[in-house]
Amino acid sequence: MNIDMIRAAAHRIQGHARVTPMLTSPFLDEIAGRRVLVKAECLQHTGSFKFRGGWSAVSAMEEATRKRGVIAFSSGNHAQGVAAAATAHGAPSVIIMPTNAPKLKIDNTRALGAEVVLYDRTGGESREEVGDKIANERGLTLIRPYDEPQVIAGQGTVGLEIATQAAELGVTSGDVIACCGGGGLTAGIALALEAEAPNMRARPAEPEGFDDTARSLATGSIQRNATETGSICDAIITPQPGDLTFPILQRLVGPGFVVSEDEVLQAMSLAFKRLKIVAEPGGACALAAALFHGDKIEGDAVVAVCTGGNVDASVFADALKRFP
Amino acid sequence: MNIDMIRAAAHRIQGHARVTPMLTSPFLDEIAGRRVLVKAECLQHTGSFKFRGGWSAVSAMEEATRKRGVIAFSSGNHAQGVAAAATAHGAPSVIIMPTNAPKLKIDNTRALGAEVVLYDRTGGESREEVGDKIANERGLTLIRPYDEPQVIAGQGTVGLEIATQAAELGVTSGDVIACCGGGGLTAGIALALEAEAPNMRARPAEPEGFDDTARSLATGSIQRNATETGSICDAIITPQPGDLTFPILQRLVGPGFVVSEDEVLQAMSLAFKRLKIVAEPGGACALAAALFHGDKIEGDAVVAVCTGGNVDASVFADALKRFP
């Protein structure tokens, strides 16, 4: 895993993924007490940065392998990213989703061209068993959501864009906060910044109760979450940092932020009001950290990555109502 | 009023206004029955394209005149655009607003550096009297919202960007729909397209009951709206097309679209769900036309300008609830 892989991914992605804008608002600067630059990755195709990793992985495959197809396990953003990237390459994709996944996400994944295979989480079936059987029968290649070099490389292209866009706004040092699940995005950004903006440092943001990465960084060894359910930040809840991502995080990133559910909802409302973008709860953790945890940040500017916008209308409306 | 003024405005604006992204979604394409490209001008500074016109006008002034300051009449987006542009140039700005304007808009305009002068709409005071008195006393220059060449030139920079961005996506012909009030944006885009994308054509979109531009184009002479109140699309309600803008519209643009309130709210909800952007009602008219009036559009692609995102949380939440 190195910067050359990220640069190669950037080359493959060019013209396919969007160069998402870096947004700012004097009103957010005032809340944070410093300049806040928001990388609006919710405006990416399929509504999250996951499209980059999906495209990077699918485009890196050999043609004959790709033609047989890809498979992924996901109930959310990774599913849509892989499905869209595979379809655009003319490759079949199978996404294994739980039967109780939101209908909209199942419908979207199908509409993006994937074959969705449902498994019953409560029925004793393991999704790995379901997936392995199909993958072996059809010769499909598994695309993991974060512990996969070409996926990390794709997510790292966010970091390359941040280095360029922040410099255009006069910012060449400071923290770059990323909403963090398994660490693919955070690790990719960290590697990109190491090469392109050595005075900038990636830092992960996670919701309270699901701060496996922050604790792993603090203790120096991989820590697990006690549970994987019960967070509104569903998109970034993973059991623990990845085996590939954690060593990169350990070497390069600063301490993790842990934000509350109320801070996340308030950040969503402020992103609506001040930036005119839609952030999902898991995608608003970094902005919440930038706005409400300024005491743990140094310097006169901070970058926050708004990682996704795939949120149900009712959840979004509730956030606006609670924090008008 | 000509293309050279727009190009000069683009030069002055560069690095100050954002080059807003052109967004797409396969789900919107399916609804429209053709490719839909959305120019997300709600992501502009101050939340609407009005920042461009404000910047263009303020930056075109002679230094001595600018130093004395500028004045504008507006309860909304033009106020914020002019205030932000003036402050960035170190020039004082006075915005005349009605006492019953939304508190948030008054607060925002003040926070952007303007002196807000309130006048009582019901108390017999004419805003022109209030404004003229202050302007004469202090030597302020009036910046009109649309019947002002340098404002039209600034709004026209949206058209230059559309020509470039659409071509990058392979679109060089078809309709470019703009939400239309006094016609400054539509006229500016029309002039830009005439020069840079001669096979593309601007068309205005307005809400039902406030279709002065559509009727003026159809009859060949300036028509007035019966009333100026009672529309959710408050940002684009004007008495009639401008004296400067109408001749440009008449020469260059196609027939106007007239959209219903329900179509506007549904377009706002779809922009939320599929593009992850916040559109205000007046800013969603063009997208509503592109999605729901396809029978009046030719060709396999259409561009819709989402002109602004300054909408109250309660109005936005209602749109999501009504059209989930």
UniProtKB/TrEMBL annotation, chains A, B:
Which keywords annotate this record?
Magnesium, Pyridoxal phosphate
Which CDD domains does this UniProt record tie to the protein? Thr-dehyd
Q: Give the protein's recorded name.
A: Threonine dehydratase
The residue ranges of the Tryptophan synthase beta chain-like PALP domain are: 14-308
User: What organism does the UniProt record list as the source?
Assistant: Shimia sagamensis
Indicate yes or no for the key word Magnesium: yes
PROSITE patterns given in the database record: DEHYDRATASE_SER_THR
In terms of Pfam families, this protein maps to: PALP
Cofactor(s) the protein needs? Mn(2+); pyridoxal 5'-phosphate; Mg(2+); Ca(2+)
